[in-house]
Amino acid sequence: TDHFTYDPGFTSTGSCESKISFIDGDKGILQHRGYSIEDLAENCDFMEVAYLLLKGELPNIDEKAKFETDITMHTMVHEQLHKFYDGFRRDAHPMAIMVGVVGALSAFYHDSLDINDPHQRMVASYRLIAKMPTIAAWAYKYSVGQPFMYPRNDMRYAEDFLHMMFAVPCEDYKVNPVLAKAMDRILILHADHEQNASTSTVRLAGSSGANPFACIAAGIASLWGPAHGGANEAVLNMLTEIGTPDRVGEFVAKAKDKNDPFRLMGFGHRVYKNFDPRAKIMAKTCHEVLGELGIKDEPLLEIAMQLEKIALEDDYFIEKKLYPNVDFYSGIILKAMGIPTSMFTVLFALARTTGWIAQWNEMIEDPSQRIGRPRQLYTGEVDRDFVPLHQR
Ligand code: CMC
Fold first, then answer.
1. Does 327 qualify as catalytic in the annotation?
2. Residue 91 Cα, ligand 1 centroid: separation in angstroms?
3. What CA–CA distances, in Å, run from 215 to 141, 196, 221, 351, 352?
């Protein structure tokens, strides 16, 4: 018989070597290529972080300018891709559209793509990073029945995305710089997070040599679930359902009840057992953005703060080491920016695409790379006597 370790949920299995992201879950540390997430979120913009993840170093001024030009060259999508949107019901969830449309990109870039050529891999990576805001904004435009806005290469990455989301052809629209900055920060905080479910999915799909655009679509599918990226949407729905701060206790009690499957969305993490450093930056950003937008007394923020306070003092959450995670505060900022709840996870996908594609490149370059092929513990029947159909 074969010998292997049985490890459901891969809680103690390292699947690869990586130089991209480092997490110390006990100390609440996250670093990308050795730089702390705090330093990156405070001092860099998303394009610099994307460059860092992909290439291993922070860019200098010239490298950054060239990178941004290279990315903007690819922001448009093939005109035929419009037609894919028309195939979806108008009320389709935008994540469903993302899985379909990003997967469809593989049909536009397949035959000519040699994944063993580093240059071609880099072009595919640029294409993905560049086209995601366009594809994501169009998923939203489709749902509200407005014309698609083309990307604007005179705008920065986050600004361009917000422009494609909210501008309409019949009037001038200027993106609020406070919102563009906040969006950029949210993208940085979601850019990469070592071997989480969606990144592992991208690596596993890619380990067979599959088309990278199709692999990213697989990552988007994995991200969609409420235990992963779908949590940001679920948090806002939960806060809305709680409704008033005095009902927080009731929901905390529900979350603790063993017989109730309800969990506090935006709480807990497989690796962080002290705090999620991204959540701290997100909470701070949330207060800043609401302040700068002049939004006072946001009821959802009050409920969130109350929830955090009660949960952090509660024995159940202390014992199980459950703390707010990155998704806990992001939804409140996104809502304040006018982003509809159903788009929250799409934004996560947009940001994480840089991490996914950096990890995919690292995997393809790794000489020890083999097809991912977990084993199983078979618990079914064996050696049964076959009974012909008419005798069963
Ligand atoms: N509320 C109440 N109880 C919880 C929660 C929660 N949010 N999270 C975990 N627990 C309990 C769980 O019931 C279990 O209790 P017991 O040991 O008595 O069975 C214990 O804590 C350990 O939970 P687990 O499910 O075994 O832990 P995991 O590492 O498999 O899951 C998690 C991690 C993030 C999926 C989980 O904490 C969760 O479902 N959280 C809510 C969803 C969420 O916010 N997800 C976003 C994660 S961070 C960003 C991202 O990846 O997108």
1. yes
2. 30
3. 25, 15, 10, 16, 13
Which token pair is 351?
């940001």
Cβ-based neighbour number of residue 294 at 10 Å: 6
> pLDDT below 50 — which residues of the chain?
none
Name the domain count of the chain: 1
**The one catalytic residue among 327, 366, 383, 390:** 327
The CATH number linked to 240 is 1.10.230.10
- pLDDT tens by residue, 238-286: 999 999 999 999 999 999 999 999 999 999 999 999 899 999 999 999 9
Q: Which ipTM score applies to this complex? A: 0.96
Query: Is residue 244 one of the residues assigned to a domain?
Result: yes
pTM beyond 0.90: the answer is yes
Q: Which residue range is the domain that position 245 belongs to?
A: 231-336
Q: CA 262, CA 237: separation in Å to the nearest integer?
A: 13
Residue 195 inside a domain? The answer is: no
What pLDDT was estimated at residue 3?
A: 84
CA distance 37 to 50: 13
Lookup: tokens for 136: 């994501």
* Tokens read off for 58: 């922070």
Burial label for 193, CB within 10 Å (0-12, 13-18, 19+), is buried
- Report the nearest-CA residue for atom 41 of ligand 1: 265
Nearest CA to ligand 1 atom 2: 263
Which residues lie below 8 Å from residue 271, measured CB to CB, with a gap of 6+? 23, 25, 194
